[in-house]
Design brief:
Length: 198
């Protein structure tokens, strides 16, 4: 079999080095099987689709300007650049992935195998389709309104707004003294009471 260096597969804007031995794109449906007591047949329920998987197999040889390990370093930089702690979605350009509608992928796995008698590396790349999740944001005012209508709140500002005007007026007036102050006979006792936290 003769392999031709493929200039058409790009990951994150970089042409994959080496010869493309194979590319495989797999799409799978999510199906749940239910156990029914007394029945040999398991009913199946389709629940959606899994993210597509892309597997690429490369052969990397030495060239006149670069060794196979220098060429492999290009793939390593795409997989995990210096200081990167979390994989990032990257664009992919390929006829095979375009046929499945895949535009962005997560670089899931990178492996290479060197054989003793061959001056080449066999490289496997595993990519997973990236589909961004849409999260609906709720503004603070609408969240407060739904909280207010859906459940009782104990916030003091909300409580005061629900009080009658007469009761609010009563709360603002002096409503008497504590028994400790009323029962204090001496000046020293009043000073002690004044220092007490209320």
């Amino acid at each position: 079999m003769i392999y031709v260096e493929d200039e058409r597969i790009k990951l994150n804007g970089v042409v994959l080095p080496g010869l493309v031995k194979s590319i495989e794109v797999t799409e799978t449906a999510k199906v749940d099987e239910q156990e029914v007591e007394g029945s040999a047949v398991k009913p199946k329920q389709a629940t959606g689709y899994e993210d597509a998987k892309v597997n690429i197999e490369l052969i990397i040889d030495d060239t006149q300007t670069q060794t196979r390990y220098e060429r492999y370093a290009v793939l390593r930089a795409i997989f995990r650049s210096s200081g990167q702690t979390v994989p990032q979605p990257i664009p992919i350009i390929s006829e095979d992935t375009a046929a499945h509608g895949i535009e962005k992928v997560i670089f899931k796995k990178l492996t290479h195998k060197g054989e003793n008698k061959k001056s080449q590396l066999s490289v496997n790349i595993e990519l997973w389709e990236y589909i961004p999740q849409t999260i609906t944001a709720v503004s603070a005012s609408s969240a407060a309104a739904s909280k207010k209508s859906g459940s009782e709140t104990t916030d003091s500002s909300d409580t005061q707004s629900t009080l009658t005007p007469d009761y609010q007026k009563y709360l603002e007036t002096k409503r008497g003294k504590s028994p400790a102050v009323d029962d204090a006979k001496s000046k020293a006792a009043l000073e002690t009471v004044a220092k007490m936290p209320f």
